[in-house]
Amino acid sequence: MPRSRPTISCILEVERKFRSLAVQELTSNSGYPPFRSIRSLGQQTMHDVYYDRSSILSSAGVWVRQRNGQWEAKVKKGGNFTNSRFEELSDPRAISRCIKDLTGFICTEQEQFGLERIATLSTARKAWIADNKFRIVVDTMDFGHTVGEIELQQEKTFTATANLSIEQQKQKTMEEMDNRIAKFMDRYSWAFCRGVPKGKLTAYFELSSNQFPSREAD
């Protein structure tokens, strides 16, 4: 009887950041070429609390947060600061296993997985769906910083093969997703401001450092 091959289901997310929108109202669809379709998803407010322990998680490309009270983890799977690839975890048991692998901590979500709070911020998010699949978001933080993202998310089941491991298949899928976002942003370049974007946590810690210059010595 042949051995069954490992199978796993996961949520993959690929995103590309941009500074801000270059048009005042995206749904006016006034650029050329226009979006094939564009639909507003409205606005929501998110309250995020980020956790780490001596930068162990962030150094490994893992970000753990509570968003509106729900635990989430984003595990980096490649890319760079502007063009990022993640596997997303929302099951507290999976988050706990991920943290244990990196820190050795065996703690429950009620114990914050043994982590410490490192950042708290509120975000007003506007979102749209373009061409029926690309999610465009613009986030404005409570301290005034703005950054946007183009996102593709895919839930997929992978089975290891003789030629490709599950991890190799994940990487291949995310590379294809990133290429689709790159083509989308190139086609609709009129909609997005040029320049180097700055992520919300980077901006948060820069502001905190300026306000509390002795923080690192505390």
UniProtKB/TrEMBL annotation:
**Any one biological process term the GO annotation gives:** thiamine metabolic process
What CDD domains does the annotation carry? ThTPase
What the entry lists under SUPFAM superfamilies is as follows:
CYTH-like phosphatases
At the top level of its lineage, which domain of life is listed? Eukaryota
For this entry, the protein name equals: Thiamine-triphosphatase
Cite the InterPro entries for this sequence: CYTH-like_dom_sf (IPR033469), THTPA (IPR039582), ThTPase_euk (IPR012177)
- Which Gene Ontology MF annotations are present? magnesium ion binding; thiamine triphosphate phosphatase activity
Signal peptide feature range: none
